[in-house]
Amino acid sequence: MESYKIAVLPGDGIGPEVMQAALKVLDTVGEIENVRFDYEYAQVGGCAIDETGAPLSKETLQMCQRSDAVLLGAVGGPKWESLPQDQKPEQALLKLRGGLGLYSNLRPTVVFPALADASSLREEIVSGVDVMVVRELTGGIYFGTPKGADKNKGWNTMVYERHEVERIAHVAFDLAQKRNGRVCSVDKANVLDVSQFWRDIVVEVHKDYPDVELEHMYVDNAAMQLVRTPKQFDVIVTSNMFGDILSDIASMVTGSLGMLPSASLGEKYALYEPVHGSAPDIAGQGKANPLAMIMSVSMMLSYTLDLPKAGAAIQTAVSEVLEEGYRTGELYRQGDKLVNTDEMSDLVIKKMAEVRENIA
Ligand code: NAD
Questions:
Q1: I need a labelling partner for 304 at 20 to 30 A (CA). Which of 270, 271, 322, 337 fits?
Q2: 240 lies in a domain?
Q3: Which residue range(s) make up the domain with 241?
Q4: Mean pLDDT, the chain, whole residue set
């Protein structure tokens, strides 16, 4: 029997609740697919600070490096907010990205038909949206040197090296080949030299992908277009900071943070986590929407574990459960069927059994 080692980092707040709900779904995939998932657990974030004094221990990073994939819930909370910047729970995320060499962040924005009216944008603008934002994660202005601040000025440096742009461009073009064959590279080449460099390299890499359409867009225009006509996009590829901002704009098209999964991929390792944080305001109350975590598991099955049919089956099950009117609290409206975290997960599992023939 095929087996996979999964490093499980539930984290803080609603992290453990959504993780438990998602692992139940993964267990079901194991039964249906006849594969074994071996879970190794570790603390990360605030709970790790309480236990070991550090948000991510060396042992935990090594455990992740031994795994086939890492699942992360969420980290942070009011208890640790007053700690100095470099000791906060969120440092665990940066250390994981660095330690696992996760240079690309993939955030799909999919509007499920049943939720098309939950967006702050008009239904006809958002229905049918299916955009993948590919953000470069380990370079650019967040990491460039020199950087610093004194009494009179502050400075950061946006640097990209050729290999960094080449590898993220390959990720975007490869994805586009499996999707709708279009890549939009977002930059600020009219002002920044580093962006013109980025654009030139993307054009070079594109020569290997004659079947993919490439367009370029300035970041200010892309922000506007994402809100005006998000359906025009298939894959968006962009630098670290622009991706940080654009992926949040793209997220809001769907209407709920509780619905957004993500993948962070490198040469050797992969980490999957929901986009939302630890939601301390609803932690421990069974109110958290587990679907972002469950769909992060679906991405893991498709991208890393080579079980794409199982990944697709989860997506279908989620869509059908929503179609039947089930909602967790943050999406609930009169006439919907209100469910808690566990019940939502059970509904997805039940639905997967019904669509079983699709993955068997
Ligand atoms: P948040 O995403 O935790 O919550 C924002 C709002 O969305 C809250 O009202 C919350 O209840 C709601 N929400 C979030 N996820 C939900 C879900 N699955 N179901 C239902 N409602 C959900 O963002 P925040 O409040 O700004 O941050 C809280 C803590 O999380 C902070 O410490 C922050 O630093 C941390 N954080 C961590 C990550 C991460 O681990 N990747 C990401 C963002 C924020």
A1: 322
A2: yes
A3: 119-254
A4: 95
